[in-house]
Amino acid sequence: MKIKKITILDASGKKVYKGGLVGLKYDKEAVKRVCIETFNDENPCIIHESYALSVLADQVELILLNLNRNKILITNELLSSLPDVDLTLYLGFTIELEVK
Asked: Is the pTM of this model over 0.85?
């Protein structure tokens, strides 16, 4: 299974984000780390950065799919299991997975 899109809903059910995992905010140091590990590139171009974001999004996807739920509450516990993506703004919100 793959996650096609996610929707993040606030406490009132209002949609605050809808899109792919790659569109979330990832830690710049994590992106740089992946670029160094993969391309030995400390100053990555946009192509290398895009690839690194894809790698990080794949890691997030694996963690979310392993929860075996289509609706996931964003808690501190979830945030600690996803250290390379910044979802702190959405603490207490719900992620809905669109899986294909």
From this structure: yes
